[in-house]
């Protein structure tokens, strides 16, 4: 809550006061639970599963890991696109989310991650033998962008309360 507390401590700043006026509750939710926040765990896990499969293939040369990497890269991309659609809907529909620069930084990192995951999957479909070194390099790059997107997404939730439902009675 560091940034949120800092913003509330400075109500004289007109820019911060304007941003704090807008609601940041999720518009794309089921029973109050934001769908985007529920969906992002799948592509995150699958990006790192792809990286793990590539490392195990490099280490063992067992073709099983090529197939495992193909499937995990494909599902990372598909689930990433689905999470991206839900996140984009939140960005477009909720003015309080749209008004925060961190939301755009998160969106840009996440879209780049989805593009890398799609490229990684496409490479594996077209050239299964290209896992080393290009597939591994793309998996490492996807892992880096997963960290960047996750960092900015976490900052939005934990520092700015984006997507959280906070009842005044709590």
How much helical structure, as a percent, in the residues? Answer: over 70%
Number of domains: 1
Supply the number of helical segments: 8
Can you tell me the overall shape? elongated
The residue-averaged pLDDT reads 89
- Strands across the major sheet, in which order? 1-2
Major sheet summary line: 2 strands, antiparallel
Radius of gyration: 19 Å
**Low-pLDDT windows of residues:** 1-7
* Number of separate strands: 2
Strand content: under 5%
CA(first)-CA(last) distance? 16 Å
Q: What series of H and E elements makes up the topology?
A: HHEEHHHHHH
Classification by helices and strands:
mainly alpha
Domain DUF2231: 32-164
Keywords: Membrane, Transmembrane, Transmembrane helix
Transmembrane segments: 40-59, 71-94, 101-118, 130-151
Pfam families: DUF2231 (PF09990)
Notes on the structure:
The protein is an all-alpha fold. The chain has one domain. Helix content is 75%, strand content 2%. It has helices spanning 2-8, 14-21, 35-39, 41-60, 64-93, 95-98, 101-126, 134-160, and strands spanning 29-30, 33-34. It is elongated and about 60 Å long. The model is unreliable at 1-7 (pLDDT under 50).
Quick structural summary:
With 170 residues, the protein is mainly alpha-helical. It contains eight helices and two strands. It has one domain (2-160).
Feature tags:
170 residues, two-stranded antiparallel sheet, 2% strand, membrane, transmembrane helix, DUF2231_TM, transmembrane
